[in-house]
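Hey Z.,

So I finally got round to the S-adenosylmethionine thing we talked about over coffee. Here's the setup:
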Amino acid sequence: MANSAALLHSLLSTAWTPRRRLDRASATRLAPSPGLSCRSSRPTRSVRPMASSTTAARADAAPPGLKEGIAGLYDESSGLWESIWGEHMHHGFYDSGEAASMSDHRRAQIRMIEEALAFAAVPDDPTNKPKTIVDVGYGIGGSSRYLANKYGAQCSGITLSPVQAERGNALAAVQGLSDKASFQVADALEQPFPDGQFDLVWSMESGEHMPNKQKFVSELARVAAPGATIIIVTWCHRNLAPSEDSLKPDELNLLKKICDAYYLPDWCSPSDYVKIAESLSLEDIKTADWSENVAPFWPAVIQSALTWKGLTSLLRSGWKTIKGALVMPLMIQGYKKGLIKFSIITCRKPQAAIEGEPEAASPSVE
Ligand SMILES: C[S@@+](CC[C@H](N)C(=O)[O-])C[C@H]1O[C@@H](n2cnc3c(N)ncnc32)[C@H](O)[C@@H]1O
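And the result:
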């Protein structure tokens, strides 16, 4: 174990030295997801983000092994993450240039939730605050329990990982929230909920796992109640310039390596998300690039991985988690190049749906 830990330390610190000044947008995650090819698209032409792909565009065409891989990854890595970082499996939100200690990081993760709610202008007055919430890709339910507490709302979460489902429910019981927050294994692309059920539809860093972004947003819109707010915080690639048909070859190459190593499906741009939301007649569509605001987070994750506890836990956790840690430098490169963007996209389902207007969420835009 000591030799392996030393080797891992050497690989991690060679690739990513914490003392080295990192680009402000150097955000990534320890945990990879199951691998596919990466393609780019021209956002002005099609909402199918990865253009010619036959697999990325169809709801029933998730690449073989993708869901199982994601489930396996989070089954394997969630315990390690919780033991070091706690119940929130998402980035912190920081002021630009902020230097942060470990306790600041935990606060920054809560701040990420609050910033997303504020950006989307979710009401918190007793009449209009959300009373029903779905947390799509909930990790171990940190956001769900926070939102259930904040609003006194009923919160339902879905994940692909059975280990996360069990842990989410156990934490809800420990925190006295079993009647408010419940978690189950289910696919975000085929949610086990009726139409129009939730006042707030929440997806914090799960969209990047979805092989079909259009189906993903369609499902978010389908389960949203008329007038409900939809919040997506996710990794994107940069928007293409009007003169561009695709990302540059070196960018495509970098994304491909990240996809291969992290087992990620095709990415899309913030513009692609906006076009999908528009195609579904969603309203008040807003987006922002928060790459600068998450910059301090991943250097801190690397530092925590380079401690004795981090290294030995990593070694015990399994190959998928180790592979994710070793590939982090490629993500840093992506942020340095301005290729990878930490993005928020918010919108609202029209009230019109309850007044006999056409249904907002249509299954396809092409
Ligand atoms: C990085 S974690 C996000 C955790 C959580 N939202 C948080 O903020 O703590 C990504 C989550 O997305 C879930 N996920 C990925 N693909 C999914 C899918 N197709 N359906 C449901 N959940 C999915 C994973 O199981 C995992 O729980």
